[in-house]
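Fig. S4 source data, part A: sequence.
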Amino acid sequence: MTVIEPPKGYTDLHAAYSVPDNQFVNLIGVTVDVMPAPTVAKTGQHMMSFKLMDHRIRDSYNGSTGLQVRFFKADRESLPTVRSQGDVVLLRTIKMSTYSGQRIALASWSTVVLVFPAVSIPEPGFSIAFQGTRRLNCHGVEKDIDSLTLAEQDYVIRLRAELKSTIEQMPDPTTADLTRKRLAPNLPPSAPAEKHARLSASGSKYQMVSELRHRVFADIRAQVVKRFANQYGSCELYVTDYTANNAMWYYTPPEEDTDKERDGDMFGYSGGPAKRTFPGPYGWLVLKVHLKDPHATHVNTKVNEGDFVLLRNVKMKIRATEGAKLEGDMWPDDRNPDRVHVIKLLNHDLPEIREIIDRKNKYWASREKLHPPKRLEDAPRKMTRAERKKEKKEKRQRKRVEERAVAAAARTDGAVDGNPTRGTLNKHIRCSHQDVQTTSLRDILDPDNTRHTNTLPDGRTYPLPFINAKYRARVRVVDYEPKPLEDFAVHPLPADSDVEMSPLDAAYDASSPKLEWFFTLVLEEAGASSSSTITTTTDPEQQRIKVHFQHEDAQYLFGNDIDDPQDLRTNPQLLAKLKEKLFTLWGNLEEKDGDTALSNRPFECCIAEYGVEMDADDPERGQVPFGWKRLYRMFGTTIL
């Protein structure tokens, strides 16, 4: 992954913590905490405070909640207009200081501040419009806005994208105080002295699983459910204290289990049905913790399933990936790398352990009462092979009848002049980035190199082979490659990276296929004619584009209804499901012959432009600028 570096002359927020007092620095960060309203200091000046975060301080221990910034102004209107979480703030010439043992950045009369509202910052893929003279919308003094450089602007865009998921997981600052009060221990004045003593002994960082939140460090007492030793000195530990937290993975109880794919990562949760039964507890009760050495070695050799443990200084985190859940990390201690923070609790008379045992007994007693073990005579009769085959055949027939009905409706419903492509969009195709306007295929292809021409300072111009840009378009499918659908699944190329593959993933996760999806679709501008052959034309209405699908984009297109790719020549069931899925996307395209009109509806999709360097001996290398070939792929689009 590319490391995001601040512009020249700027200091990242983690490094700013080590800057001596009274030294001036330049900073850029994303707002994670904002004072609700300015206050009046003892000096009579108006004061406001907010906290900034970047990707480096986010992952550090001392500054994981952000760097505090303070402004003092005689006039309240002169304070910067920082309004909400996610705003990006640029600060030039701000002084580092220490107040009450905490590091802060203190503004002075010479400090320059620019505030970029979160809603005005585009995603990096759509930032091409801001690589020239156009500037991002921001608040500040006009001369300071005019001095904004392209490097500063580019860093603002990329930093906001890097921390977007982190910001979304943080609590609303307007309710932060209420949240803190709700999570604080409820100790009335008459609470027994032993309970006060127990909380004191546990320490201020002690939290139950139900209290854990993103970006906090906590000490946890819990019972071990499962332990998996991975390669290269790591371990995955699954623990519970029998309190629920719906930010974690949900483990399906047997009575809710179906043949559908399930969320999660353990026991087959991220790749289909489990290979063995999860013993429980179920629901949102089990926390997954990633451990590195020395903690991992200690757990692998000293800790067993069913043991009670104390985990110290666990960093809670929701990773910046789609579908991620709350998990814990335990890395080596920077100050004492050999110190183990996993303690096995042998004394089960400790108040915290007794409470866990009590909750455990109540949980299993309640489950047994609601879901008593089935007697042998109550078990459903196992279907014969012939019955299962018949049931699957009837299910496929019902689904095909429904999809044929949808296709028939597409030929009439909303059609204009008998052309179904001019009617309503295909409601069975979902496209992300709905806030981005659609772009015509002609503008994407840019045959005149309007956007693909670079001008040198001396006025000379040359064509760019490609630009890293993303678009949304309204299209329909008019052709595909390869023609046999059986060739849509291919053997993957040899991997170039040494990516660690955990035994847990290999044993329980079916998301690492032996084959991969790889195919190409030919798209035509929605509303163009329904000709049956691919032609080369300059007519804007006939512009067509090839979009390539590799494994991940294809998996996203097919959704959860299609299993991982296998040899489609030996797996007719998967091939039939693939045909049914593609029928929703392209109608009768596979069956079309002669002058038969296409029966598919247009849909919206996301298209990304990229480049591939051609081999030195490739005869086409000399026909493209700098030896790079321009290509396109479809992403962010799903067949429902």
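Fig. S4 source data, part B ends here. Residues 388-639 form a domain with the OB fold (Dihydrolipoamide Acetyltransferase, E2P) fold (CATH 2.40.50.140).
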